[in-house]
Amino acid sequence: MAEELKGTFIDKGKGGAEFSEVEELIRQTLAESKEFTAKPAAESKKEEFRATALPAAPKAPEKAAPAKSAAAAPAAPAAPAASGYEATFKEYKAGDIVKGKVIKVDPSGVLVDINYKADGLILPEELSDRSFSSPEELVKIGDVISVQIENIENKEGYVVLSKKNADYERKWKFAMEAYHHKTLLEGKVLQALKGGLVVDCDGIRGFVPASQVSKSAEEALDVFVGRLIPLKVIEVNRRQGKIVLSNRLAAGEKERNENDKLLNELEVGQIRRGKVKNLKPFGAFVDLGGIEGLIHLSELSWKRVKHPSELLKSGDEIDVFVLGVDRVNKKVSLGLKELQPDPWANAADFYRPKQVVKAKILRFAKFGAFAELEHGLEGLIHISELSLHPVQQPGDAVKIGDVVDVKVLRVLPEEQRIGLSIREVLLDKERKAAPPKEAKETAPPPAEEKKVTIGDLLAEKERAKAEKEAEAAELAAEEPEEVT
Fold first, then answer.
1. 405: confidence class by pLDDT, cuts 50, 70, 90
2. Which residues pair with 112 in a beta bridge?
3. Which of 88-92, 204-208, 284-288 has maximum average pLDDT?
4. How much is the average pLDDT of 74-99?
5. CATH class (in words) of the domain with range 343-478
6. Residue 91 confidence (pLDDT) above 60
7. pLDDT attached to residue 470
8. CATH class (in words) of the domain with range 94-168
9. What is the spatial distance between Cα 126 and Cα 128, in angstroms, rounded to a whole number?
10. Whole-angstrom Cα Rg for the chain
């Protein structure tokens, strides 16, 4: 009997090895099942969606079949609430506006990575409120865009997004900030209506009433269509969906800003291009691009000018030299003659004392007559040098426009003065015309004629000084007072 029962017992040596193999198989099966289920279902969906065309939804991962002997295995420990991988995702809720990167563009929608456990999907109708033929007209792969979360997860596992709503919210926020901060904007005129202009300002469509359009009385609103104009938001009413803007307020502010910028850029010594705007007896006003500068009469030419119209006319575009900038009073002094060769620099090379040249009588003064010489120079014929005989006024000896022979008495480039004499030329002619005998009888001894005393030098110096003072006084009396 004992021998019969012995045949029914399990051989521990052989049975133990087989049981160990079963346990090992169970452990491997549980490990594979745990590794598969640890990967988030949403991540599997993201990978499968990126590899397929929209809008086909990715298949849900199949659950691993448990091993038959799993029941004999000890229960696996409970998984933590959130793995380290899931902790890297942000927490969102419906209505949030977030930024995301476009990772796929398809005719049926756009896939966006918003750093969440599932990718976001924008359907074509949620891309924009304006018409388009393809989503690629609006976004491209790699673009970072703002989107609004409509639904955290739809039945296919995607986050439902709307770019159109995010843009709409951004526009109203932009409009409110521009209104509160009085920001200077720029917009394109889309349409001219009877009562004003419809404009697009950085995606914001608004209305500019006709009274807020900066224009001349005869100008029609239609001429503004297609133009870029400066704008300021003056009313925002989201309930009524209304944004009102002003071109008139913005134009004035833009002009002031540009003028201030130009004034700060101007420096003495610069050469600027400008347009002659107005001529006055005391000078010419030149527009430098928003700021007007004055070319004083004395700065128009190296020659003396009675009126700016002798050299310029309104509308002329000219280069001018910046002489001074008064940023406090916003005044700019300009020069024109500084861009012309200075004839006085080489005056001593052109003319020397005792040289006889031609001169044209230009104008009279109480102390003499001014005459035009070559090379852009002028000289003064003192009233005592106009004739052999004393005269009371220059018109008694010469007339304006007369061309006469004159002798150079002195050349003073540093004072911009040349002294001339008609009397000396006439004396020379008389000496040459007189008979030799008569000349011997009447002419003083040669030694006495060439003799120059200290008294003569002092007298000549005093006379030149008197001429200069008289000339300055005459010019000051003739020069008109500047009107500002």
1. very high
2. 102, 120
3. 284-288
4. 63
5. mainly beta
6. yes
7. 58
8. mainly beta
9. 6
10. 49
pLDDT greater than 80 at residue 19: no
Secondary structure, 3-state, 327-352? CCCCEEEEECHHHCCCHHHHHHHHCC
> So what's the architecture of 182-254 in CATH?
Beta Barrel (2.40)
Q: What homologous superfamily does CATH list for 266-339?
A: Nucleic acid-binding proteins (2.40.50.140)
Identical fold between 266-339 and 343-478:
yes
Report the range of poorest mean pLDDT among 216-225, 327-336, 428-437: 428-437
Q: Can you say how many angstroms the Cα of residue 292 is from the centroid of all Cα atoms in its chain?
A: 19
Structural domain boundaries in the chain? 94-168, 182-254, 266-339, 343-478
DSSP 395-461: GGT--TT-EEEEEEEEEEGGGTEEEEESHHHHHHHHHHHS-HHHHHHHSPPHHHHH---HHHHHHHH
Q: Please check the confidence at residue 484 and state whether its pLDDT lies above 90.
A: no
**Contact assessment for residue 70 and residue 30, using Cβ atoms and an 8 Å cutoff:** yes
Contact 421, 385 (CB under 8 A): yes
> DSSP string spanning 249-306?
HHHHHHHHHHHHHHHHH--TT-EEEEEEEEEETTEEEEESSS-EEEEEGGGS-SS--S
Task: Please state, in angstroms and rounded to a whole number, the distance separating the CA atoms of residues 377 and 406.
Answer: 14
- 229 touches 186 (CB < 8 A): yes
Distances (CA, A) of 245 to 172, 176, 183, 191, 210: 14, 12, 11, 14, 11
The residue count of the chain comes to 484
- Residue 471: what pLDDT? 59
225-234, 298-307, 412-421, 430-439: segment of lowest average pLDDT: 430-439
Q: What is the phi-psi region of residue 6: left when phi exceeds 0, alpha when psi lies from -120 to 50, beta otherwise? A: alpha
* Main-chain phi, psi angles of 145, to 5 degrees: -130, 160
Integer Cα distance of 389 and 421 in angstroms: 13
Write out pLDDT tens, residues 142-197.
Answer: 999 889 898 887 777 788 999 988 888 888 888 899 899 888 899 999 999 989 99
Compute the mean pLDDT over every residue in the chain, rounded to the nearest whole number: 78
The token pair at 345 is: 């620099």
**Tokens (6 digits) for 228:** 């870029």
- Give the C-alpha distances (Å, rounded to integers) separating 43 from 52, 117, 382: 14, 6, 105
The three-state secondary structure class of 16 is: helix
Distance CA 189, CA 225 (A): 5
- Number of helices (H) and strands (E), helices first, in the chain? 10, 20
pTM: 0.47
Q: How far apart are CA 149 and CA 151, in angstroms?
A: 6
Residues contacting 143, CB < 8 A, separation 6+: 101, 102
